[in-house]
Amino acid sequence: MPRRKKQYKSVTGMTDVLPEQQPWWEKIESVTSSIANFYRFSKISTPILEEEELFVKGTGKTTEIVEKEMYILKTKGGERLVLRPEFTPALVRSYIENGMEALPKPVKLWSMGPVFRHEKPQKGRYRQFHQFNFEVFGDKSPIIDSLLIHLFFNFLLQLGLKNWHIEINSIGCRECRPAYVKVLKRYYKKKISKICPDCRKRLKKNPLRVLDCKEEKCQRVKKLAPKIIDSLCSDCDEHFKAVLEFLDESKTFYFLNPYLVRGLDYYTKTVFEFMPGKEIGQGNRMSSLIGGGRYDLLIEELGGKPTPAIGGAGGIERIIEEMKEAKKETKPLLKKHAPSYKEKPIAFLIQIGHLARKKSLSIIEEFKKNKIKIAENLGKDNFKAQLQIASRAEVKFALILGQKECLDDTIILRNMETGIQKVIPQADIFQEIKK
Ligand code: HAM
């Protein structure tokens, strides 16, 4: 009898993207680069293989990813390498290694590619999946948190997706988190018989993670657990309130989830997730579409200068599944959002004072709707510094917004070549620029 030939299959949890599926991927790629272009992020690509230690230190020794899910390989030379399980520590490594610390802040980077986690495969959960990542290095102001969340908000809207919601929380900092962890441990110790064996271990190794457990009995215990927002120090509390205020201002709707902690160790202050379903509890809790947060200590921990940072990543496969469910046409959008990296912004928005900074978000949004590129540096509020950046960006106009202009719905339009300025109603910005 002739021997039957072996039929090779793709590795468990890793799938082919066949030609007929490519339009969905192209659409995501094109919307990502158009969003990156509008918000002025620069693209970066890093190798898939990195040193194991980078993630042990960066992602965290006691996280599920590092404890159970990394693909580790030992080279002939004895090095221990891993297939990256996420981008963030690798992007920080590259930022430090390539001298980007010397660049004017913030440094905004985006990237896209495969990541690998040895999880139990199921719908929406793969061992090789793809992420798009947006990271902002060097700006600690809360408006940056809101702007980044708003960027992802726009991203999903631009894909035509509607069935999702944002969950947000603050997990405090080195100063205030330890006190919360104590209170949390005390609460859970009283309920020790009611939680799963994994959570009993978590309580010792990484207590915050008990709030992340999907077991039904642990979910019941969580319902009355102390909330971290009640333990925030004044700095984290003010930061969080300001993030929410800016989100309200830019009409980025969100749900507060006091138990959102995220599964990676580097986060400080704001954390967020974009979940399927219209509100908390409606979609599958296992499958966030996008997740991220602030990580003000990571760059220093990985050998860089103390530098605040924030970022987030979305899972392409999960988003495509949502798009397929929403049964959206792909072709018209493909054309509409074709990237245009080379276009320079025409204007730079200078804002002075809290009110102006808040108002800036809706002005930027209007520019986006009108497809006119505008640059900004919302982390800065010094007039001179912003004017210098505007001049370096070689824009035609600077739009200057202060307290007075906010109150009477005007804005100052400055011709950067001639230095001539005039006050115009905010409603006339586009007409004036087009002139
Ligand atoms: P993450 O929440 O682990 O965060 O992953 C981000 C996204 O990747 C998730 O929201 C989900 O869409 C997708 N994802 C995660 N695991 C899988 C899987 N097994 N199969 C399919 N999709 C998956 C991070 O990776 C952080 N680095 C995000 C970040 C960037 N934080 C700050 N900057």
What does this structure look like?
This protein has 435 residues and is an alpha+beta fold. It has helices at 22-38, 52-58, 64-69, 88-97, 142-158, 177-190, 197-205, 216-222, 234-249, 298-301, 316-325, 331-336, 354-369, 383-392, 403-407, 429-434; strands at residues 42-43, 49-51, 71-74, 80-83, 107-116, 128-137, 164-170, 255-256, 270-276, 290-294, 309-315, 347-351, 374-376, 397-401, 410-415, 421-425. The protein has 2 domains: 19-176 and 232-325, 2-Layer Sandwich (BirA Bifunctional Protein, domain 2), CATH 3.30.930; 347-434, Rossmann fold (3-Layer(aba) Sandwich). Helix 5 runs parallel beside helix 9 (234-249). The protein binds histidyl-adenosine monophosphate. Histidyl-adenosine monophosphate is lined by residues 86-88, 117, 119, 125-126, 129, 131, 133, 135, 264, 288-293, 311-315, 317-318.
Question: What count of domains describes the coordinates?
Answer: 2
Q: Structural class given helices, strands, pairing?
A: alpha+beta
Portion in beta strands: 15-25%
- Order of strands, main sheet, comes to 1-5-6-11-10-9-7-8
Number of strands: 16
Mean pLDDT: 92
Secondary structure blueprint with pairings:
Layout: H1 22-38, E1 42-43, E2 49-51, H2 52-58, H3 64-69, E3 71-74, E4 80-83, H4 88-97, E5 107-116, E6 128-137, H5 142-158, E7 164-170, H6 177-190, H7 197-205, H8 216-222, H9 234-249, E8 255-256, E9 270-276, E10 290-294, H10 298-301, E11 309-315, H11 316-325, H12 331-336, E12 347-351, H13 354-369, E13 374-376, H14 383-392, E14 397-401, H15 403-407, E15 410-415, E16 421-425, H16 429-434
Parallel strand pairs: 1-5, 7-8, 12-13, 12-14
Antiparallel strand pairs: 2-4, 3-4, 5-6, 6-11, 7-9, 9-10, 10-11, 14-15, 15-16
Helix pairs in contact: 5-9
The structure holds histidyl-adenosine monophosphate.
The site of histidyl-adenosine monophosphate has 25 residues, from β6, β10, β11 and α11.
